[in-house]
Design brief:
By secondary structure, the chain is α+β, with helices and mostly antiparallel strands. The protein has ten helices and 15 strands. Helices cover 30% and strands 34% of the residues.
Length: 303
């Protein structure tokens, strides 16, 4: 079997690059041929996966959630479905948490060598793709506006600092979501389409599945012109959602589930795909069932 190891030399404070020889040697215990490639710019992971999906039986890649998004983008644009192995190397690593993949190089390699294959769902948004989260509104820009140097220095705290700095007022935007079985229309401060169990390092959707052919949607409602008390109330609602999870009972959180949604929003609304800046305005979200052939921990049962 042929394996290509693709890694982002910048993510994870350079740990992957420093351990490259060890990683390639370990992968050689499972695969007959192991080649490696270091990405050089945003989008390079996507290109590398797309161009090599038919040439290799397995693609192992490393980086953060943004790198995972790029890998899935390349996979969905390719004509083959090699097995995917993942070595987390980012700041938060939400996908790894959802799948039970350890954040250490040694632990992740053990999963690749001894794990099992599971076909996971992903999402298609217009002509783009995402693995675990599509979001707009409060705090969602922090993952792609936080400077890389700040991430390296203080890790996850950097996202919190950037989120608070830019989102104290909570911009309100109109959103209309039409699904096959349910619809919603409201002024909102946050909209989430969730395929994964973790968001921002928290078990926001821990009871969900990445293999059930559907996503969970949460809409945090707000008044069109909120005063100070309304804004404070929104903080408490968001805190309840992230601390207690998707199943929390809260009248200001509207919830939907399904596999196809048509979303109407203004052109100023920016959608976040797996921690990266995505599209703006109106989008169509579809679940692509069993699209990603992922190596996961052998003993883990719930995906």
């Amino acid at each position: 079997m042929r394996c290509l190891f693709i890694y982002n030399p910048v993510s994870g404070r350079g740990k992957i690059a420093a351990n490259l020889e060890k990683i390639v040697r370990k992968l050689g215990e499972k695969y007959e041929i192991v080649d490696s490639y270091a990405t050089t710019a945003p989008g390079d992971m996507t290109r590398a996966v797309r161009e090599n999906a038919e040439k290799y039986d397995a693609i192992v890649f490393s980086g953060g959630d943004g790198s995972f998004n790029e890998a899935v983008q390349g996979l969905c644009e390719a004509n083959a479905v090699p097995e995917f192995g993942y070595i987390p190397g980012g700041t938060v690593n939400d996908v790894a948490r959802s799948l039970g993949i350890p954040n250490t190089i040694r632990g992740a390699l053990k999963v690749i060598l001894t794990g099992k294959n599971v076909l996971l769902d992903c999402m298609k948004i217009n002509d783009r793709y995402a693995m675990y989260i599509v979001a707009a509104g409060a705090f969602t820009s922090a993952t792609y506006t936080t400077p890389q140097a700040q991430k390296k220095l203080v890790g996850r705290v950097a996202y919190g600092i950037e989120g608070i700095r830019k989102n104290l007022k909570f911009d309100v935007f109109d959103v209309k979501i039409d699904g096959k079985d349910a619809s919603a229309e409201s002024e909102s401060v946050l909209v989430l389409f969730m395929n994964g169990k973790y968001v921002a390092g928290m078990g926001l959707n821990r009871h969900a599945s990445m293999t059930d052919g559907k996503v969970e949607v949460a809409i945090v409602r707000q008044r069109p012109r909120p005063n100070f008390l309304h804004r404070v109330g929104a903080y408490f609602v968001l805190a309840k959602l992230f601390l207690l999870g998707y199943r929390v009972k809260e009248r200001r959180i509207e919830k939907l589930e399904g596999s196809h949604f048509e979303v109407t929003a203004g052109e100023g609304v920016v959608w976040n795909f797996d921690g990266e800046r995505g599209l703006t305005g109106k989008v169509v979200v579809d679940v692509l069932p069993k699209k990603v052939n992922m190596i996961v921990p052998a003993r883990k049962k719930d995906f």
